[in-house]
Amino acid sequence: MRVTVLGKSPSWQDADGACSGYLVEEAGTRVLLDCGNGVFGKLRRFTDYVDVDAVVISHLHADHFLDLVPFSYALLYGPRQQSRSPARPVLHVPAGGRDVFRRVVGAWGKEDLIEGAFELREYRPEDVLEVGPLRVRFQEVPHFTATQAVEIAAGASRFTFGADHSPTDALIEFARDTDLLLIEATLPEPEPEGPRGHMTPSEAGDHGRRAQARRLVLTHISDELDADWARGEAEREFGGPVELAREGAAYSV
Ligand SMILES: [Zn+2]
Ligand SMILES: [Zn+2]
Predict the structure, then answer these.
(1) Which of 21, 24, 71, 145 has the fewest CB atoms within 10 Å around its CB?
(2) Measured in angstroms, how far is the CA atom of residue 84 from the centroid of ligand 2?
(3) Alpha-carbon gap, residue 242 to 55, rounded angstroms
């Protein structure tokens, strides 16, 4: 299985960057995990959008789904899509996704844009999805809206994406012994007040160690934070080398 980082920014993009998006490929099957702002253009550098079999959205925050809008326009109006059998990838979204998309694109009177371009299916956290040889599982994690960590596995090889979350044992159990844990490290310091929804690099390292992840990669982190500082914080807690996600980086799992 090959995992390519298309976007690793938090909810605002790095210079020339993109928000959450990862391309997962195995034996000719392609899954796009999250489709935040900026991701569609990055996707096109690595694969043809008509060849994406399925899109899986972790949660309904803008930085994880906004580029479903240009992706939908491409699927509906792209010149090659005017044939009798246009591509219509499956779009797996959390419960309530259809209504959220209708509200967003309804702002300019195109309520059915996304559901018209994709085959939209709402999943439940307990569902297990099969996309070709890939198996997709979910785990609810604490965040500001209903959010799922996502595992994509091919045979015994596992890739775990934490999505956005505050510190949580739920992710540690879900990711136990995973081959690759892509974990958020949004904050320079814990939120000073109110409910928490994100983590620091040192908390990300701690989660990676407790999950005994074989490989740990920090993501959802701004280019405005010092990368060496973040890596050092995470490595101190993880007890081994940690990488920062970088657009275009690919991992074999
Ligand atoms: Zn986010
Ligand atoms: Zn979020």
Answers:
(1) 145
(2) 38
(3) 27
Tokens 């920062």 label which residue?
A: 244
Buried-state track 127-139, b at ≥16 Cβ within 10 A, e below 16: eebebeebebbbb
Q: Which ligand is nearest to the CA of 144?
A: 2
How far apart are the CA of 79 and the centre of ligand 1, in A?
A: 32
Mean pLDDT of the chain: 98
> How many residues would you count in the chain?
253
Can you tell me the distance from the alpha carbon of 20 to that of 36, in angstroms, rounded to the nearest whole number?
5
pLDDT for 194 equals 87
How far is ligand 2, taken at its centre, from the CA of residue 144, in Å?
A: 7
Contact 216, 243 (CB under 8 A): yes
Phi and psi, residue 224, nearest 5°: -85, -10
Give the per-residue pLDDT at 102: 98
Residues with CB in 5 Å of ion ligand 2:
61, 164
| pTM (predicted TM-score) | 0.98
Q: Cα separation of 231 and 252, whole Å?
A: 21
Please state, in angstroms and as integers, the Cα–Cα distance from residue 229 to each residue in 72, 148, 191, 201, 226, following that order. Answer: 39, 28, 18, 9, 5
